[in-house]
Every structure is written in C-alpha cells, then in structure tokens.
Amino acid sequence: MIAKALIAAVGLFTIVEIGWLVRRFSTNPPATGDPLSVALGTAGLACMVAMLTYSVARRSRTLRRAAKLTEWLNLHIFFGVQGWVLVMFHCWGFVFPDAPRDYNWANPGPLSFVLMNIVFFSGILGRYLFAALPRTLSGQHMDRREYDVQCAELDKGIPAEVAALWSEERDWRRASEGLAAMAGVPTMARFRAKRRLDLGRKQTRLKAHWRRFSSWIVAHRPLASFMYILAAVHTVVGVADSFAVAAVALHVAGLFIAVALAWSAVAGVKQKKAEAKARQDYATATARGALPPSLHPKIDLDVCVGSGACAAVCPEKDAIAVLDGKARVVNPTNCIGHGECMAACPVDAIRLVIGGATRGVDIPVVAGDFQTQVPGLYIVGELGGMGLIYNAVTQGVQCVEGFAKGVPAASEGVHQVVVVGAGPAGLAATLAAMDAGLDVVTLDQEEAGGTILQYPRRKIVMTRPFELPVYGRVMLNEVSKESLLELWKEVMERTGMRVRTRVKVESMTQDDAGVFEVQTSDGPLRAHRVVLAIGRRGSPRKLGVPGEDGSNVAYRLLEPENYAGARCLVVGGGDAAVEAAMSLGEAGASVVRLSYRRDSFGRIKPKNQERLDAAAATGAVELVMSSTVREVRPEGVSIEVAGDVRELDNDYVFVFAGGVLPTKFLEASGVEVRTFKGEEFAPANT
C-alpha cells in the first residue's frame, strides 16, 4: 500500500512539474545560458549521477544496510525519469523549432541529449523484453530447467519412433506434420507427443528471448557509459562554445567509448567461460548429491529475475551463479553461510535456510534477536547454526547491542551478563558488553579460542573483515589457526578482557524475578542475561562401537607428524575428515584409510575433492566407501563394507562425525530444539 502511494505521489509530482515547465517555457522560451535552463541541466545531470547509486548499492554492504536493494532500484527509476524530464526542458531550444536554436553539433550537448533518449527508451525496451518471458499458469516466469523437467516426464511415455521426429533436428513444424501423418500411434502417446512439441516450441522461444535480452544488456551498458562521458564533457566545455575544445573532447570521448566497447567484449567472453564452468560445477554437484554444510540460500525460481546481484556479492565467488536466467547454488559445499546473496537480491527471492529434505540439522529455536523462548537467554554462533567466524562475531555484537539498554543494573551477587563460551561469538559478545559499560563475566570450559583450538596446526581458516567493539576493525580473509589465536590473545591484552577458563557450566535455572542461576564447576553465578556461545564441537559425535573408549581413538588431529609410520583410520565424510586423512598421508603415516558410510562425498568442497582424488590415485589415502566401523581393538579394527565384515590391521582411529548438540542441557534450561529440514532460520533472515 505504501509503495503504491509512493508511486502515485511521484507520478503526480512529475505531471505537475512538466505542466509548470511547459507553461513557463511556452510563454518565455529560454536562450542559451538562461539561468533556469542551466539549473535544469545541472539538476538533470545530478539525477543521472544519482542513478548510479543502485549499481554501487549492489556492491556496497553499507548502502544495503541503509535500505533494501529494491528501494535503491526504485530510486534508480525515480531519478531516471526525473533526469530525463529535466534534461528535456534544459534542451527546450533544441527540441522545439519555434524556440531559439543556437546549438552546433560539435558541442557534445546535442549528442548527449540524443544518446540520453536512446538509453532512456532502451531501458523501457529492456523491461519489455523481460516482461515477454514465458510464464506458468500461475503467472510466474518459467525457466528452461522447468521445461527440461516437464519434457523428460513426457518423453517417458512417447515411443522411440515418435521421439525421433525431433530428437536430432529441432524443427517443430516439420515434427508436427510428421506426427499428424504417422499412423498407428496410441491415443495417449499422440497426446503426450503433441504436448511435448508444444513445450519444445516454447523452450525454443525462451532460449531466443534470453539471447535477445543478453544482447540488449551488451548494447545498453556501453551506450549508458558513452552518455555519461558526453554529458560530463558537455558540462565542462559545452558552455565555452569552442569548436576546437569540443572537437578534442569528442575525440577523447570516442577513445573512451572504444575502450568501453573493448572492455564489454572481453567481459562478455569471460562471462561465457564463467557460465560454462558454473554449468559444469552444477552438473557435477548434482551428480554426486552435494549438500551445503550449514546455513545456505534457498532460491525461489518463480521470483528470481536473474539479476546476478547474488553472484556478484558472494565472497566465495563460485558458490552461486546465474544459469538460464535463474540463480543457482552451483557449488553447495563452497557455501558457508555469508548471507550476502540474500541482502543483494533486488526481488527478495532468496531466504537463508538450514538443513535439507534428506539431511536434517538440530538447531535451538531462537528469534530474530537471538533470544530463545526463555526471556533473557540468548544463543549465538555455531550453536545456533551459523559457524562462520564473521557471522559468529556479527551475531555476538548484534545480540548484546540489542539488549544492552534494557538490562537491569548490577547488584550484589548478580551480574548483568554472563557469556558462556570464549570462541569468536563469545569474545565479540563480551567486547560489546564492555563497550556498553555492562558488568560481564565470560566462561569457557577450555581456553579462549573456541572451536579454533581443535583445528590441526597451520589449518587455513576462511573469514572476512569484521569490526570488534573496543578493539577496532580486523582485516582478515584467509588466516592460519596460529595467527587467529594470536589475534584473540592480542585482543584480550589490548582491551583488558578477562575470561575464566577451565570452568564448565553444568546447569542453569531462572527464578521468578528473571534472574538466572548458572551452576558451574567453579561455583554458582547469578545474572540478568545469559549468552550461550558454546559451539557444537565440544561434544563430538561418537561411533558407539566396542573399543571406542580406548586410548587409540581420538576426535581431533592437532599434530599429524606425531603419527608418522603408523597405520591410521579416519572415519567421516566431511571436510574435516578429508583434510585429516590427507594431513596424515603428507606427514608420513604408513597406511591411511578413509571410511565413509555413503558411496560418495557430498559435503566436501570441490578443492578438497580434487586433492582427495589425487591422493587416492597415488595410494596416499585408501578410500573405504559404504563402510561402517563395527569394533576398535588396540591393533586393528572390524569394518563392514557392503555387508562384508573385514579385519584390518590398524594403530589409531580418528573420528570426524561432527558435534553433538547439547540437547539435554538446552532442554533442561527451557530451550526448544528443532530439526530443520530446509526451513528458514529466523536470525539469518532479519
């Protein structure tokens, strides 16, 4: 309703504006240099420059925080219309023959005016081309993949001799004539064939449309660039009315447009190569059943317009791409939940979800402000389903900033905030509390650093720059485990932050006044607010087989070189298991086997898949697929492979089966735990 009212107001304003200017210029035509004409031209140029904010907003997180991308697009359209109207009246003498006309074509002004109109109506044409996209019965745009699915279903019931009419040559008219002349075709098969031919014609039109639309984009962008160049030159030298200066300016502008066209051609070639690679990645990921590791985008293909904004802002670069006019997650295992794609989408076609239809994930239920259904109890970081360092830090800060003003003052024996966990989310929450002047106590059952402590030595951690309260901005993209731990140490020293380490939280209750009593191994603590940032890996998932409690079984690998010459079995199918197996092989383990219960690795990153394939080809790692460990012994293991139990000589077993959610602790604290199977995750979508 508000959007419609705004559109009506803009339309009314434009009509009134045009009416006033027509009346003003009809009775008193402006001459060259007229102050009003100059003002209109300046304002029109300003509007055109303001149109560029949409392009900037697609790449700027700061602007997208200020307003949604759809709102920047509305501004782009508004400034485009206003700029066109203002420049039209600025060029009154050029447009209407009865008014004074002392322009010459050596001045870039007339050229930029003509080009502005071409670009303006080109924009209208582009909107028409997109509106002409074939639609489903529900009125939504239909993409090529949907046609492929329907065609594949119809092909199942069509005899081979009938399908041969169009399988080699896509001449739908000739195929229709051939079908009509063909005798002996069952009624249902003929009906399916006619439907198949109809879909084939539509699919051909769809492909042709996207070719036209792509051609329009290739032409529209350099034209717009040339328009801006000429308008700038006209503004600088047009008023001088110097043929020599204007001629030089035109030559310079021509050079710029030549460069712009060359750049556009090169960009087009690169785009085709990138699309071919994305298509191959998508086919490979689909074939091996690849699944995102945690939080990931779910794209509504009926709403998606294929703008490419999501792919442009994705920090992983190749996780998402536009294929056949629709955005696709082409490398699911590369997606680690940044969430930038959702913010960049101009039509809100992307939502962030956790889990999938075939693989559910247990997550505590929290609201958009990270609060559970227990008032005053908050959950952030990996425990809440978002494990990326940047996301964890951002959540920790946002969580505390959200409740900081409403926390009761500290009193004797009652702290304002207790933060449980000293990983990235917990440390960020602590710093935010310190910055807000709150009385905060931070606990961790191990040392400060959280899940990072469990990484192997020299493991490279992916993140992105983030802001830490009190400390300042941290500029990181790729960093080793050791460097990251050094960073946390420096942060704690510079900010004076204190963490009570080796303190385990055992239980938590809340009294009628809303005050929490946190029972720890170091005694009870009372607080008005509690932030849980304990992660998920503190309690590793076990195999549950005899012998697992032996000293030769471990759930993390810190120093692979200590196992040189040993026979090792790694159990798991994620990136951690694959990286551990390859690290053991590189460190000199005599035998390295990787056991996984499925027949393919659907959750590892493409680069890890390539490294693993190479290691398996050289014999550095032996893959034991579709296998289950049945027993662990001091010098061997029993492992079942496709129903056959094998006895293998072995020294050490490393289990990387993920972490177990502390469900009992959470439910005892009053927190609801839910299995997400592709549903939206509230904190990520607010």
Overview of the molecule:
With 686 residues, the protein is an alpha/beta fold. Among the domains are: 290-354, Alpha-Beta Plaits, CATH 3.30.70.20; 366-539 and 664-685, FAD/NAD(P)-binding domain (3-Layer(bba) Sandwich), CATH 3.50.50.60; 553-655, FAD/NAD(P)-binding domain (3-Layer(bba) Sandwich), CATH 3.50.50.60. The strands form eight sheets. Strands 6, 7, 8, 13, 14, 15 and 16 form a seven-stranded mixed β-sheet that branches. A five-stranded parallel β-sheet has the order 17-24-18-19-20, covered by helices on one side. A hairpin with a 2-residue loop joins strand 15 (516-520) and strand 16. Helix 11 packs antiparallel against helix 12 (243-287). The protein starts with a helix and ends in a 6-residue tail after the last strand.
